[in-house]
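Lab manual, section 2.4: Encoding a predicted structure.

Procedure: take the sequence of the chain (278 residues), apply the prediction step described in section 2.3, and record the output as structure tokens. A sample record is shown.
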Amino acid sequence: MGDGREQPRNGPDERWTSSQRRDVIRERLLGAGSIRIEDLAGEFGVTVMTVHRDLNVLESEGWLRKVRGGAVLDPAAGIDTSVRHRLTQMSEAKEQIARCALRHVDDADAVMIDDSTTALALCRLLPGRGPMTVITNFLVAINTVADAPDLDLIALGGSYDSRYAAFHGLQVRDHIARLRADVLFMSTTAVLDGFLYHKSQETILIRHALMKSSGRRILMVDHTKFRRRAVHQLAALADFDVVIVDAGIPDDDLSAMEALGVNVEVAEPSAAGEVTGA
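Recorded output:
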């Protein structure tokens, strides 16, 4: 029996990951409508500043609005959208991949970020690592870096597609064609037989433009994307300089990529919770 409040999934001596904390905060907000920072800090065994950082991330994703001493559910958060769903999927693997991808970001780079939540995980790590320029059509990524003093933001505007929280269309594609980035970080819906697939033709047009306008191309995909199905072919794995996957990748999928000559890096969590590329 209980009071309707979700019980902690970790014991008091176990360390919570940021993904686990944010999952619990989302569930609490959807159930109760509000949370208190001091309560969360005590439950998770972390500092108040750590909870503030978690809330900042969730606020940038549109889940909540911070108020004095806590946060309240954003009215729009109750709407089930494909973007919000993607933000909650494989979040820990995405963070691992992002930390591995961070090694490919050099100071003063012009960095392109697509409208995937996998590349968004990298985008969250960029503030404080500038100076650099971030180029993206993804509204969540735009909001994530907009106030970072060491980052120059080029927001690619056009026709807004709420299904992807991104700007699409000819205006975006033409804008990209006039730019040149040092590196592109992107993901996709599915990987099968050495090719990338996506369900959205509009998204494919933009990602083709991003690929043409970048010097290096880094693909970030968690292991669940392999052998999925999607209708439209986007590119070949061999079109990328590096493909970064998480440690859950099956051996046969890893071997198949290596047989194609793909440069693969596996994001491996270390004992300290940091991630290195294997």
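Check your result against the sample. The longest helix spans residues 18-32.
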